[in-house]
């Protein structure tokens, strides 16, 4: 069972299935190039008016949408859960709560975050000049999002792009079109003017059509392989792009860490969202002196988790989202076992349930020759490796093509901060895992093949605007000393500028005043 493409009598469709049962939940259009281009044209037509209105008016719409989310909290939670397989509790805690917070933050603070900024231009200021940067909307932003957080990932980008004055065309994953259509419904109810949020459901071909349609920016979240295709397509049009790609995020547990907390964090970090989070704990490195105790705790806590359909009570781990991802998990475990790894608990798909379930799995005796320690597994597996020295732990953590998030566990916070700086990752947490995507104020994004650009926070907002530098000469009646004609006196002055003005010292520059006055007078003739 995967999402299927369908030719019905009227139009082409995709079908969304419940991954926990295999039942069809609903259908959505499979939009082709023509529909994508029409959506872009509608967005382009609607954007200038939206870009021209005040932040206060945009805030009103976003806060109205937020109210509707709150009013429909249970319904939305159930829809996300049904389309992805995750427990409703997780749909609410990991998807809805963060976006409610983000909607509030960007509705209230975008105008401050994007206020024109005066730039200190040093001694040019003394010459009667001033500079400021103003932030203008980009136009139409294309958002392409994956299936693992079908609500939080696109909605955050939609809210930020709209608050910055842009229109949006959103292409959700073919596995989760209904959640995206719900986002569209929400903004319709909030009376967002027509055309400002266009949703083009479909498959990869719809995404490819969107990247080729002539957007002003692409916000892409997904796999490294598709990210590279998007970057290549964007290069054709020189469309600026933010790529939020995969991760193989390491967790380092030092000898002085709080073991109980570290063990609980490890299993939540590895098994929440059935391990299908870009920031999941995918590799755990624990100091050899505490390894036995830590592993015992991890195994005990893992065995206590309830794996079941999201509709059952008190489920911790739900279904995985699709067969392809489940097969990757099986492959990685099989490869690791073949190379000498030991499965301490879990290790299999669950056969007694109809959907795509995999047991939360803890694996030891792993090394970096194994796929499980190199490639993104994106499933409920926690491989644990020991280290002797911190240098070794850092080296292992950095031995990856990815660099999204990482964590260090220690009771010595200052030491944790120092180690954090040595790790190649967009975010490093000390005594925390996974969750900073939920903080609206902090930037999110990776290094190396985890992508480039940022979302969330002021850095993310700046991706959604064009900074424009406005420079003013307040003394237009005084000709610049560097203008034509280049006399011998001019050359002397320029040498003086090189020696004194560029030193940054006002005193040094003031010694050039007589030559500057002479130069001004020289050109009066
Ligand atoms: P994919 O790369 O397969 O898909 C991502 C999106 O791109 C989907 O909407 C997909 O459509 C679309 N797409 C597919 N082909 C193209 C194309 N040629 N041009 C444009 N768009 C295209 O990723 P997954 O959906 O499998 O998501 C899982 C990946 O996302 C993992 O690697 C995960 O780590 C990463 N991720 C990263 C996050 C981050 O913040 N860094 C957050 C969440 C996930 P369709 O699904 O219809 O094929």
Textual characterization of the structure:
It is globular, with a radius of gyration of 27 Å. It has a seven-stranded mixed β-sheet, sandwiched between helices. Strands 8-7-6-9-10-18 form a six-stranded mixed β-sheet, sandwiched between helices. A three-stranded antiparallel β-sheet has the order 1-2-3, with no helix packed on it. Residues 1-10 have low confidence and may be disordered. By secondary structure, it is α/β, with parallel strands linked by helices. It has helices spanning 33-52, 55-71, 73-84, 88-113, 123-126, 152-163, 177-189, 204-211, 224-237, 259-271, 291-303, 323-338, 371-374, 390-398, 413-422, 457-462, 488-499, 506-510, 513-522, and strands at 5-7, 12-17, 24-29, 117-119, 129-137, 140-144, 167-171, 197-199, 217-221, 241-244, 249-253, 281-287, 342-345, 361-364, 381-387, 405-409, 427-430, 451-452, 465-473. Bound molecules: NADPH dihydro-nicotinamide-adenine-dinucleotide phosphate (NDP). The site of NADPH dihydro-nicotinamide-adenine-dinucleotide phosphate (NDP) has 33 residues, from helix 8 and helix 9. The site of NADPH dihydro-nicotinamide-adenine-dinucleotide phosphate has 33 residues, from helix 8 and helix 9.
